[in-house]
Every structure is written in structure tokens, then in C-alpha cells.
Amino acid sequence: MTKHKVALTLFLTLFAAGGLFAAKPAPAVKKAPAPPAAVIGGLTAVDMPYDVGNAAMLKWAVNPADTADTFYVVYVSSLATGGWLEADRFAASAKTGKDIELPFWAWDGSSLEHAVKIELNNTYGDSLPDAAFQFKVAAEKNKQAIAESLPVSVTPVGNWFRLDRLNNLVLLIALIVIFFWAVSHAKRKGLFIRRIAGLDAIDEAIGRATEMGKPIFYVPGIGSMSSISTIASAFILGEVAKKVAQYDSQIKVPHYDPVVMTVCKEVVKQSYMEAGRPDSYREDINHFVSADQFSYAASVDGMISREKPAACFYMGYFMAESLLLAEVGATSGAIQIAGTDVEHQLPFFFTACDYTLIGEELYAAGAYLSGEPMLKSALKVQDFGKLFVMVSIAIGMICVSVGAKFGWDSFVPAILNLFQNF
Amino acid sequence: MKLIKKQIPLAIVFVTGVLTLISYYVPHKVSVDYIETLNKWENIVVAFAFLLGLISLFFSHYNKIARKGDGWGYSIFVFIGFLAIIIPAYVSGGKQMVEGVLTPLGWSYKYIYTALSGTMFAVLAFYIVSTAYRSFRIKSPQAFVLFVAAFILILGKVPLGQIIWDSALGWTGQSVSAVIEWIMQVPAVAGKRGIMIGISIGAIVTSLKIIFGIEKQYMGKD
After folding, report:
1. How large is the ipTM?
2. By the 8 A CB rule, do A264 and A258 touch?
């Protein structure tokens, strides 16, 4: 029995010890991903043209063997070795040279090569490291790398000219040439300017206010002084204020923007001086109301309702308050003249006001009212500009239609590029 | 004196205008920095001008109350409204919410300012109705075209209108929604683009007038 116990103990001890001395299994070695079988050749990296210096362009040949489930992954690094970050991922059928949105005179893209714009800001934020950036491209299928390129590097730099905006520049130069021609022509001969009913009615409105002994409200809108419509409104205010001063009527100009108020104060004061009535000028003609849209509308509505003005002018930049103001003015029985360049507010003014200046007429109003030949010549430029655009559009339409009919694949995009803003 | 009042301001306008114009065609960082600097200056000027506006506001309403002018009672609400926001803002340290709880400023903003703004915006609905009524009084051929277009749009936006259209004009094979789509996509867009082209050219010409010193009414005349 004892013999059996000793044998069992010995067996157990040996069994336990066997575990200690047994060969340990080799630690699990992580299998490194198999290196891509193929190499993507011909990868080049260049600075992205016509930009501020925060993008690079990668190009490599399209592989005809790529299938629908092949993806390309672009990696970027700001370090000499390693530190790769994924910058872009796209299907192999996408992003060829034809997909770069640049006009034909600034970019010669081919559908036979991939062209990828890499915005480095998206990866590195606004302050880019001042270094050359490394790029590499990997092709993936079912999330397995099947090919990879050798790294290439480029240092993005800021460019000095937007060649893609050449069409815009040419149009601007043409307008400047016409502008100076019209100004010099106006000095010599004078120009015929078509009549604008809304502006001819200003005299009538001011005369009515004078006869009724009621004030005129001039609302310059909610635009800032950097808005063209507000600047145009200030010019019109000058002419209206001059007539008001001549007729010895009253004008009130409630403001939304304190900077506009400051400019308008000078404009109105000057108009009163030119009219020979500086004594009639009061500082509170221009007064600040509110820099909040609906507070402004509520306050001006209140003034119009209480004071029942004889005439209301709404000239400048307007949004939702356009109808709030014009409708209250119409209800109060005032003669109303409006002008704005916000095209989606024009219908409200059309229906609620007696006269409406549409966009460009607002810009022309100051010159039209002043009657100065030099200023009026600018109206001629506007008309020539519109003629130029109309003729261009007509020619463009014919070219595109003919090109589409005969299947001129490169001609149609080229014509469309000419009319496109980049 | 003319140098300070006329020529120097005109030179500043010219240089600033030309540089800003050029910056549209120059993508370099120098150009971007220049535009950013201009924007910062504008913000600073606006901040100071806002003080001027506030003084003007208080001055005109104070005078109205002092003179007991027409509607002077309303002017009191300018000061009440000002205090109803400024005092809570001061007490709350400018924060509208702390740990999920409205501060006095948050309360004023939500229950006074937002409510009043919402009310004003809501009034717009009634004004649109009265304006629509006015525009439906056909006085000219253009007004008739406007009326027809607006009527079809209104008709197509309500189920009853669609039923009426289908029963009266169903034989044409055109649904009211297709007609609305055409009105919005063809004549409306054509008109809008025409206006936008005119506006763009007008804006360029106005800018040129200012940059080259031909339009200088904003500085007064000689």
C-alpha cells in the first residue's frame, strides 16, 4: 500500500516537475503584413499650381488592371522617414487629370493618369510645418495592400498669379478700357441716358412731403459700409437730402449700422451745405436704431406708423425686414420708392412699393440724380457691359449647342470654361 | 487743407482698392495676410463706431423723453430693454448657461430677446398675405403674369389645389407640380440670372468709380 502511495506521489511530482522543465511554446510572433507584391511606378509630386501654398498634387498613371473594388490610399508625412498619415482614399476609377477643376488654359489634364490634390491643411492644420512633405500611394483590394509606390517629396510654395482666373481678368480689363473711354467721351460730348421712372419719382415724393408737411423716411437697409448697395444708397441719400434741404422739408434716416450712420451724417451735412441750408441741418436726422435685424424693423415700423410719413425710401441691402418695412409704409399711405440688389427681396418691394429700382438701377441712381457727366458716363459702361455679356452668352450658347450636336468633346468644356468662375 | 481732406483720402482709397483688387488674382500668403489685416481693421473700426451708435441712440431717445415728443413713452422701453440685457449680462459674467442652468442673461435672452424677435418674424406671415392680396389686384400686363405664376404656385402647394388642377386641366397631361417645377427652373431662374448679371456689372462699375476717384460724393464736394 505504502509502495503504491510512494509511486503515486513520485508520479505526481514528476508530472508537476515535467511542466516546469517542459519546452515552453515559442511566443506568438505577429506576422508582418505581406509586402505588396507590386510597385506603383511613375508617382510624381508637384506643388499645386495657383494656390496659397498649402496643397500638393500627386500624379501617376492609371492602371488598366484596376477593378471596381480597388482603392488608392494616399499617405503623407512631414518627417524624413516614417510618420505616415492617411491623406486621401478613393476608388481607382476616380480622380483622374480630367477631374481637376481648372480651365483648359491653366491645366492640361489627361484621363490616363491619376491627379490628386492633397490639401495639407486638412491633415496638419492651418500652420504647416516648414518642410518638404513625403508622399506615397498604396493600392488596396479588400483592405489588403496590393501595390505601393516609392516615397516622393515636394515643398509646397505660394503662387503669385491665379492663371485660372484669366478669363475674369480679361473681362475686368475690357470693362476698365470701356470705362475710361466712356469717361473721356462724356467729358467731350456728353451721353444720352435712358430715363428711370423710380428716380424721376423722387422729386414727386419730396414735393408731396413738402406740401403735406410730413417727414420723409430714408431707410438705408441692414448692409455694412463694405456692401456696394449701401455705398450706392449713401450716394442717393446725398441727392435726396439736397432736394429735401432745398424744399425745406424734413428727412429722417434710421440706421442699423453705426459706421453707415457716421458716413451718412457727413453726406447729409454736405448736401445741406450745398443746398445753402446749413442752418436746417440737425444732428438727429441720422440716428442709430439697432444692430439687430428685427429690432431695427420693429423700431422703424413703429416710427412709420406713428409719424405717417409722406414718402418712404428703402435703398440698400435688405433681407426679411424688406416686407416688414414696405408693408407698414404702404398701409400708412406713404409714396414708396425702393431699391435693392438682393434679388430675392425684389418681389416684396415690387408688390408693396410704388417704384422699385432693380439692382443695377440702384447703383446708377446716384449718378443719374447728380446729373454730372463724369458720373453718368458710368451708366453707359454698365449698358456696354450688359451688351458684351449678352453677345458673349449668345455666341457661347451657339458654340455649345453646335459642339454638343457634332460631339466635339473637348470643344464644349473649353467654351464652358470661358464662362466659369474659378 | 485740400491735400488732407481730398487728395490723401483719395490716394488711400485708390491704393487700398487696387491692392484689394489685385489680391483676387494673387493667391500668395502675402495677399491672404493683407486681406486678413483689412478685415481685422474693419472689425476694430466697427467696434468703436458701435459706441458712437449707442451714444446716438441714447441721445435721441433721451431728448424725446425730455421734450415729451410724440410717442415718448416708447423711448422709455429703449432704456428698459437695454438694462434688461446689460444688468443680467454683468451679473452672469456674459454666460448664458452654467452647468445646464440658465443664467439671468440666458433667461433674458431666451424669454425676452428671442421671444420678441420671433414675434416680429411671425408678423411677416400676415404681411405676406396682405402683400399677396395687393399683388393680385391686376393693374398691368406684367402684374397679370405675376398673378398667374403666383396662382399656379399657390394652387400646386395645397392638396385641394392639386385636385382642382387634375379635374380641370388633367386632360393636358401635365401635373401641377411639373408646371411649378418649370416656372421655378426656367422663367424664374432666367429672370434672376438677368438681374444678377446686371448687378454684377453695376457693382464692378461702381467699384471702379470709387477706386479711380470719379465717385467721391461720400467725401463731399470741392
Report:
1. 0.85
2. no
